[in-house]
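Subject: Protein entry, chain in single-letter code together with its fold tokens

Area: Proteins and the way their chains fold up in space.

Attached in line: The record itself begins immediately under this heading.
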Amino acid sequence: MRVCLALWLSVVGVSNAFTTVHRNPLTGVRPFGTPSIFHPRCTSLSSSPTPTEEEEETRKVEIPSNWAQQILYELTQVRDPGLEKDIVSLGFIKNLSVDTNTADVSFEVELTSPIHPTKDQLRTDCTNLIAALPWTSQNIKVTMTSPPPLSSTGDIQGMARVNSVIAVSSCKGGVGKSTTAVNLAYALQSLGARVGIFDADIYGPSLPTMVTPDDDAVRFIGRQIQPLQRNNVQLMSFGYVNEGSAVMRGPMVSQLLDQFLSLTYWGEIDYLILDMPPGTGDIQLTLSQRLSIDAAVIVTTPQELSFVDVERGIEMFDSVNVPCVAVVENMAYYDANDKKEEEKTDDKDDDDDLEEHFK
């Protein structure tokens, strides 16, 4: 018992002595390095006063008067890789606004196409640049848009909200025109565009053979025909509403096509792929003038006979001011089953000849 009491007294004495040595009797401040548990007046390091609600509200609304100029200046660092200019000078920034209470920033970037290949990267760049400003919040809303559809199809009611019409033409049958049209349509859809395919070949429609709709029942929206669909691509062909090909004269075909164009309700879509009938006759000219086609894609094969017809097709589109934006050389090679390698079907490069001819 006496041994325990002696040990307790010695511990208390050491503790008191340690405290006395490490405390300034005048200021009560301990020297640097003394543990805070021995300092009677020690307080927490985070002892700054908590801001009031009024102070917090005042801090939130401290937005500079030239906030729009600051945002636009930062966005000049974002460039469109295709046009090689910044998105501000291109006029892409629309509906710029800031919330004065939360400092949230929102704006739209109106690109030239709904399937712009770098729109996700552009959105990320815009968000990071604006979020880095000292007065903005981390809630930056950037909406990627494209120009609204233009009524470029004259008085055709069902196509009033179609943005662009792309004609796929071959001027010669059997070269893979319909295959190219379908592949182009689904490629655009996979990039995020709203797409429709119109099979304008009344004599020999190919679309029903190539694409089976999800539901082949023909429905109406008011007095207009609702296009069929497959994987979110709208489809319309004479073969869907009438089995087999049509047997009729040219003037009747033109009237039938005009009814199809007027009675089909496409709604709001970005691209209508027009699968043109082969040739350069009256039907093709009527479609080119009636629809105000924005661009044409020509399909050919390496053979000389097809090449000659392609020249006529390009000249036809030139006569109605439709730009030919691409030439697809189909069946340019084949896979040899025994050799497992690609072999060209013709050593001559017709695409080079076309480029030279139409320079």
About this structure: DSSP finds eleven helices and 16 strands in the chain. The mean pLDDT is 77. The longest helix spans residues 2-21. The first strand starts at residue 79 and ends at 80.
